[in-house]
Design brief:
Layout: H1 2-10, H2 21-45, H3 48-76, H4 83-89, H5 94-101
């Protein structure tokens, strides 16, 4: 389980390949638990003038690994990772994004690489 959480950060700039649903779910839960704890700590520790800068740093540190993880989940369903950009630009598309990354992935190898469950 710890390896699944770390894989999001060790592969933070890796937008190629595929990612398992289980790894994504664990990473998502742990990732956002830590994120909200950090936001709470940031609002109580930093003075108001520094909170905006700290928030930008926090979003970059946690946003990029999450973005790459979601792109790899799209690849696991044999979909292009560019759909994530549509979800970021049009919030209504986020429901469609959730419907694409949630179902069971394509089994076996697809155009984005081998099945991560067999590696």
């Amino acid at each position: 389980m710890f390896d699944m959480c770390l894989s999001g950060y060790t592969n933070a700039l890796n937008f190629k390949g595929r990612e398992r649903r289980k790894a994504y779910a664990i990473f998502f839960v742990v990732h956002f638990s830590i994120f909200f704890a950090a936001v709470f700590a940031m609002t109580t520790i930093f003075p108001r003038s520094m909170q905006e800068i700290a928030a930008v740093v926090l979003v970059v540190i946690w946003g990029i690994p999450l973005l790459s993880f979601v792109v790899r989940r799209f690849h696991d369903n044999d979909s292009s990772g560019w759909w994530v950009l549509a979800g970021l630009l049009m919030p209504a598309v986020l429901l469609g994004v959730a419907l694409i990354i949630a179902p069971r992935p394509t089994s076996g190898q697809n155009r984005y690489g081998p099945d991560p469950r067999t590696i």
